[in-house]
Write a structure and sequence with these properties.
about 100 residues; alpha+beta; 4-stranded antiparallel sheet; 3 helices; 4 strands; globular
Length: about 100
């Protein structure tokens, strides 16, 4: 029987394989998130990428309730992508696409 953490690790294992096969590393990876516009999470997401040379693109929804944040960043490996997603997943109320 699998618990929730096993399911996450199984997901990340499959995701690692997909990333390894889908592009060359090091390479540019595009992260996409949706955040409530009034939330501090937009700033927190950007802080996660503060040590990297990242390009940010923001677009507010029609009613300005949500913000779409796209982040292009050059990373060394699929492992680095997964580590960033794990850090981002600790923020409540964000949707990773």
């Amino acid at each position: 029987m699998l618990n929730a953490n096993d399911n996450k690790e199984e997901f990340y294992s499959r995701f690692f394989d997909q990333l390894s096969q889908s592009q060359s590393w090091p390479g540019i990876y595009l992260f996409k998130f949706i955040v409530k516009s009034e939330s501090d999470n937009l700033i927190k997401l950007k802080e996660i990428f503060s040590t990297k040379k990242a390009f940010f693109y923001e677009k507010k929804s029609k009613k300005k309730k949500f913000t779409s944040l796209s982040i292009k960043v050059n990373l060394n490996s699929p492992k680095e992508v997964i580590e960033i997603y794990k850090v981002c997943s600790k923020l409540k109320g964000i949707i990773a696409l």
